[in-house]
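[recover] target loaded
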């Protein structure tokens, strides 16, 4: 691993990602099933999707559902939303369509992006992404207090729990985490997390934050440890992988041994004993990255559950924001943050 690269003085979400795409234009950013995209191609595709979003009349702050499989197209759509000031809402294709539709209505998604027509699957309009690329010119500056993403955290069949993370807080989370784990342009991540899990934010945007490389793996590999272990043996260049305790136990049980130079990101509050034993044998590095705790560091109000129950619900949806100037966060305490709420009005 190389040291942490300070690619730019920019700490705002969009300007930082724009600077990375510009300065690393010729480097490979993404890989998926043998296909590779450079940072220039990724930025160009994101610019083309941003143009399509503008044609649909969306404005900064509007919520856009991403019903897309893991692919370079998904990452381009995420960057397009960040570029245009929209709030992206990951919709995991493996989940029930009926539940995704209900959740999308409850959180007021205005448009759903998809790769193919979805007849009557969602109550709101569905936009099928058109192919194309355009010159990745400068990104418009956006308000750091705009919502960047909304994570659908739980759905019990009638109610959806979600949390909005504003752009400033997401940038702070990425900056702090990448500095702590010493991520850099030499980092080569494997993305396996479910789209609606907090770990997906770091998997998708962590490598791009520092000019690294992201290999997008099929969703099934989360539940097929033998296939995942085989992929890692074929790809010794992959040096960063994230998962919770059960994920690592399944992978170790499948015969994965790790290698020196590997960074294992364990998304739990405590280190998995089996993983630590394997680290001692093989010499790879482990970091605890519990994303839930990392996001809680940006939000001191952690004991209250927020629900989006119905159009008449009295609950509000929390928006997490934090000051970029407060760049210290530990397991015991984090930077002070303001939590803003939005009224749950009729949709």
């Amino acid at each position: 691993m190389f040291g942490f690269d300070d690619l730019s003085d920019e700490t705002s979400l969009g300007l930082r990602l724009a600077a990375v795409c510009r300065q690393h234009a010729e480097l490979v950013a993404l890989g998926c099933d043998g296909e590779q995209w450079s940072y220039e191609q990724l930025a160009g595709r994101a610019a083309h999707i941003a143009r399509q979003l503008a044609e649909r009349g969306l404005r900064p702050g509007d919520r856009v559902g991403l019903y897309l499989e893991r692919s370079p197209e998904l990452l381009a759509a995420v960057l397009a939303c960040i570029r245009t000031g929209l709030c992206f809402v990951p919709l995991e294709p493996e989940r029930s369509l009926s539940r995704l539709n209900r959740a999308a209505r409850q959180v007021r998604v205005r448009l759903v992006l998809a790769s193919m027509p979805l007849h009557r699957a969602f109550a709101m309009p569905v936009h099928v992404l058109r192919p194309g690329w355009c010159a990745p010119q400068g990104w418009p500056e956006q308000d750091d207090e705009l919502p960047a993403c909304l994570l659908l955290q739980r759905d019990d069949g009638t109610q959806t729990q979600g949390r909005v993370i504003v752009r400033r807080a997401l940038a702070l989370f990425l900056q702090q985490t990448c500095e702590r784990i010493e991520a850099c342009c030499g980092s080569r991540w494997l993305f396996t997390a479910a789209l609606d899990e907090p770990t997906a934010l770091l998997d998708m945007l962590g490598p791009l934050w520092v000019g690294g490389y992201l290999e997008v793996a099929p969703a099934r590999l989360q539940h097929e440890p033998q296939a995942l272990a085989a992929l890692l043996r074929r790809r010794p260049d992959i040096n960063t992988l994230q998962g919770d305790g059960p994920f690592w136990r399944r992978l170790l049980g499948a015969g994965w041994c790790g290698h020196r130079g590997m960074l294992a990101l364990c998304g739990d509050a405590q280190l998995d004993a089996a993983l630590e034993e394997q680290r001692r044998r093989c010499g790879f590095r482990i970091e605890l990255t519990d994303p839930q705790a990392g996001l809680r560091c940006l939000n001191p109000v952690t004991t209250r559950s927020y629900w989006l129950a119905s159009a008449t619900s009295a609950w509000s949806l929390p928006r997490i924001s934090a000051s970029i100037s407060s760049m210290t966060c530990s397991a015991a305490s984090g930077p002070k943050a303001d939590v803003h709420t939005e009224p749950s009005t009729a949709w």
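[recover] notes: The chain is about 30% helix and 20% strand.
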